[in-house]
Design brief:
With 58 residues, the chain is mainly α. It has helices spanning 13-35, 37-57. The longest helix is centred in the middle third of the chain and has 23 residues, at 13-35. The N and C termini lie far apart (38 Å).
């Protein structure tokens, strides 16, 4: 393959975000079924705090 004629790489950002949401939803559903809504709320709160901390550090 010639080095100068490479096609542009596809943008998979939207697909990755959608699959991340799907995975988060099924994990929350499993936690809800196994432990109840309060655990889902606690895990969601902790994820929010972790994401905020990552945003502040980056």
């Amino acid at each position: 393959m010639r080095r100068g004629n490479l096609p542009a790489a596809p943008n998979y950002t939207n697909a990755a975000l959608v699959m991340g949401l799907v995975n988060l939803l099924w994990i929350f559903m499993v936690l809800w079924a196994a432990f109840g809504l309060p655990i889902v709320l606690i895990v969601g709160f902790l994820l929010d705090k972790m994401i905020t901390r990552l945003d502040q550090n980056g």
